[in-house]
Amino acid sequence: SKGNHRHYMLKEIYEQPVVVAQTLRSYLRRMEDQVSLPVPDFDLGTIRRVTIVACGTSYYAGMVAKYWFEQLARVPADVDVASEFRYRAPVMEDGGLMIVISQSGETADTLAALRHARSEGQKIAAVVNVPTSTMAREADLLLPTHAGPEIGVASTKAFTCQLAVLAAFAANLARAKGRLDAKAEKELVRHLAEAPAALNAALAYDESIEAMAHLIAVARDVLYLGRGPDYPLALEGALKLKEISYIHAEGYAAGEMKHGPIALIDDKVPVIVLAPSGPLFEKTVSNMQEVQARGGKVVLISDYDGVQAAGEGCIATITMPKVHPLIAPMVYAVPVQLLAYHVAVAKGTDVDQPRNLAKSVTVE
Ligand code: M6R
Hints:
Its EC number is 2.6.1.16. The protein is of the alpha/beta class. Helix content is 45%, strand content 17%. It has helices at residues 8-14, 16-25, 56-73, 82-85, 108-119, 134-138, 157-176, 182-193, 195-203, 206-217, 231-245, 281-293, 304-310, 328-347, and strands spanning 28-29, 34-35, 49-54, 77-81, 96-102, 123-128, 141-144, 221-226, 248-253, 270-274, 297-303, 316-320. Strand 5, helix 5 and strand 6 (123-128) form a beta-alpha-beta unit. Residues 55-58, 102-104, 107, 110, 153-155, 239, 243, 357, 360-361 line the site of 5-amino-5-deoxy-1-O-phosphono-D-mannitol.
């Protein structure tokens, strides 16, 4: 049931601190400060390349995970949308691991990519939310998310749980490759373990996000900008808004703005900037200022320090807790979900059953 919530989507957004904690519990051994994953029947240390395949929001989780596989494990990682992967004659060499990511575990394109990779001799890991699903059964290594049933067509809690699993798995692969010593592992585990509390803190801004939703609800087009692991979050924010409010939205890598999309900027196109303070902050802010210099209306999502440093001149700011960059993509998922939700409610759309969409897409 929806409990006290008006929609399943809102209920599922609010469940995130609990279900991410639940998911992390099965992947972290807190007492020993270690990640602990199911042991596959192949040697993880022999994995030389990772290919991540998924659709929609699950694909964006894969885009974030690419950073982790490359940064932590130094294993080359490709990410592809499942419907593209199969038809481009992808090169699959020995020592390749395919990771499929799917809430339902039944998405036809992703399943077809899994079967294709298997026939080419790849090992398969599946990050799925439905443990009895076809993908779960067909994988060599099952990495369940423990998000519980997700009813809203717009995926929310499945996404943050996918990120939790993928971060733990990237750390596990890094360890297997001899790239993560005990001290680094301990720090990583500590940062991951902070995610549930940080998600909770992010939810506290629900009312202020609701209060600014009218600024976005009147727009015809909205842009989302992010850099590094927050770039996929910009894509996710735009997808959420399109799906449930029917407002045209696009996500861009912040640095790409000046290569074209900045031509769209005027005072009618709100630009949502995702910029946690940290190593990429200054660069993102200078892209944001390019937008403002052309009359663009910016909503800045950052932490207290970021909002202090760059919030002036924005039409609104949303202050997130200050978190380690590893968990920022999880935490910043919350404001983009809530913003899409409140804009959709303001527009009076059917949040849980948006037009033309199905929860599980079982045709190619
Ligand atoms: O069940 P899956 O994770 O494989 O589904 C993939 C996409 O269909 C799904 O994420 C879709 O994009 C959602 N409606 C996004 O909110």
